[in-house]
Specification:
single chain; alpha+beta; Immunoglobulin-like; eight-stranded mixed beta sheet; five-stranded mixed beta sheet; 29 strands; hydrolase; Aminopeptidase_N-like_N_sf; protease; metalloprotease
Length: about 850
Amino acid sequence: MKYSLLGVLGLVLACQLEAPAQAVKSGKPAATKANTHKKTSPASEPVSAAPAPATLVVPSWLPPTNPVQPAATIVHDLLDTKLDVRFDWNRQWVLGTATLTLRPHFYPQNQLVLDAKGFDIKNVRLVTGNKEKNLNYAYDKKKITITLDQSYSRTETFQVRIQYTAKPNDLEAGGSAAIIQDKGLYFINPSGADKTKPRQIWTQGETEGSSCWFPTIDKPNQRMTQEISLTVEESLKTLSNGLLVSSKKNSDGTRTDTWKQSLPHAPYLAMLAVGNFAVVNDTWRGKTVDYYVDPQYASTAKAIFGNTPQMLDFFSKKLGVDFPWEKYSQVAVHDFVSGAMENTTAVTFEQSLVQFTARELPDVGYDPESTVAHELFHHWFGDYVTTESWANLPLNESFADYSELLWAEHKYGADAAALVQQEKMSRYLDEAQSKREPLIRYHYASHEDMFDRHSYDKGGRVLHMLRKYVGDDAFFTALNRYLTQNKFSTSEVAKLRMAFEETTGEDLMWFFDQWFLQRGHPELKVTHSFANGQVSLRVQQLQDSTFSPIYRLPVTVTTWVNNQATDHQIVVTKADQTFRLNSSQRPNLVKFDSEAQLLAQIEEERSQDELLFQFSHARNYLQKYEAIDLLRSKNADLAVSGMLRNALSDNFWAVRLAAVQALRRYKGAEGNAVRKELQRVASTDKKSQVRAVALTTLSAFTNENYSANYTAALSDSSYHVVSAAIQALAKVPAADSRERVTALQETTSHEVLSALSAYYALNGSSIEQYQWFLRRMPDVSKIDLYQAYLPNFATFMLRIPPVERDKGIQRLESLARTDPNDYVRLGAYKGLSILSSNMPTLKATMQDIRNKEKDEQVKAYYALMQ
């Protein structure tokens, strides 16, 4: 499972919308100071606990007490599922027949309970050979309780066949930040009335959504083989798990495709997709690798998915376990409720993450490729070996998250991997301001709560520390042992620990306890001094040890004397600890956690000279970035500005990007030279993200006019750069650029549409622009509607006569009341709020919208806006 953009935004909102008793901290933690490290010999010092405070102060991030959530009791083993389904597009129903093969897990059973949400049940029958017998059952719209014809022992299998109609749209929608709805099966544009998107059907099973469209035991500790027959219009293509074993044309103009998976997997991984897809073919070691996309994106599908065969090869070799499944397909669908989902052999993606035109491709960066890697790695961690309960979800998601770093490291090098490390660390630390949970959580209110930045980003960073601690050989040998011992079965964190202990011979309970089973992270203050041929390095753990542990931290400290580096392996085990490191003279630099390994917030004392030395002698991207970030406030200093100008030519684009950002509003003596360098970067840098940020940085020099640079950038090949140029011109509109900007009105780029909305919000006032806002609104992505377009539309309407605003206000009100997407409703409400500053009568409308809103998270956000 991968978060969508909306899901990421939802996590931000979730952090803001904690219960009133949990005060939300403001400000962003120093994520860039939280680096990571390596260790060669474990310390034997005992962990010392800091004394508890006299008065217990409960931190804002401490979650409420929730009930214990054990793994589901296995009463029956679900062995096989056969489905025969067709669809009523008009009523958005699934017409199905399910044949399930089961046996009692251990104890004799004369009753079977299945999950089935919101069905109409026609009949339930026992199947014995060619004979069927009606069975009595009770149904409460959530579970079918079936009375079997006899008591079956654990050596006896039996089959039940259920005819049913599933009505997922009648279900009350739930969900989480990662999976924003949980109806299981979705009809997209079923009537075909919306000309902006195709007709599609697709499913999303995680966590317990499969039982919204077929009866099953909807728990992750079940495993089944399956066969799904899909009857659809002959013009449509289908996809499901496993191989297409037959395709038969029917006399009524339909076609029945049968997909069979012979290897067992969990019910939540079952999927189907129906639509007018283009299928782009690829292969790996004789296995089919296909990419299903909208037809207009067929020519660029391989640019996004084309590294899949290389990934299959890399992960198979790295893990020592060949990709075990029959095929590997990836499908892009519209309005998907998550970023992507690892359905076995048939991964589903939200189309906006992976479908791009040739012109958009240079701007997309690593994100689509990282998502492809993430979902593929799940086919070992999640599909091949599955978490036994949602409490152990990090056994799926932490590994998938870490695969993004592994692939970046393999394909693009150490700097690219370090950038992944930095971004993931920052996301976890952002969430940790308002929420800190153990990675493995047996206490939660809902299993949906597990899908957070702990299970993903923190878990991936913990795996990185484990890899650095035991070394690459032991790390991947232990993963091979774990996968081999637990293949086609379920697992819990103890099994992972045991695999590492059996591999290394070391008791690793200390590591798994502090990182997997306890909440929080280290908050370190590091200082150093030099005297008598020794560096005194003081490390203080400042986290609240009442609620978080005092950590054992194997870490590398590097001292630099002249140009010679010396690595010192230390193990921090106490709340306040001083280490003595030999050095022939005062070092130019003492760098704690020099391999950027620790998951921690680190405040490390260094002088300006030390940071300048750190940049020029940096071993990795994170050391360069940290020096730039910590010196950016001193950019007027000649030595610092010289470092930043040097960084503008760095080989790694993220270093150049950081330097461009650090030169924002530069007021030093090298002003002309700095601005010329920024102009050069804005026009010639190889990376579109760097060119775009350079334009934004230039626009911050309010006493200078760079409209010629902005106007020239309107012709850039990158939409990202064009958008930045429009945003800059919005602040300093040039007469000779207005026509150029207006000529972009019919763009197909969501990003450019958002930038145009900002331009018109500050400079527009004509009725033609008003009509443009209304006309292009359906073409803007949901996230852009929330973040920019709808608020900008409202700001624009303040510039036109009140008598002409009615249509726009009605559109905003309608979206705020009725749009199915939470973020569109929020964006529309934000727009009404902007208008209410000049139109007090709108306050009653906004109050009515708040009163009638059903989503508690959205209502809480409205409250924050008051």
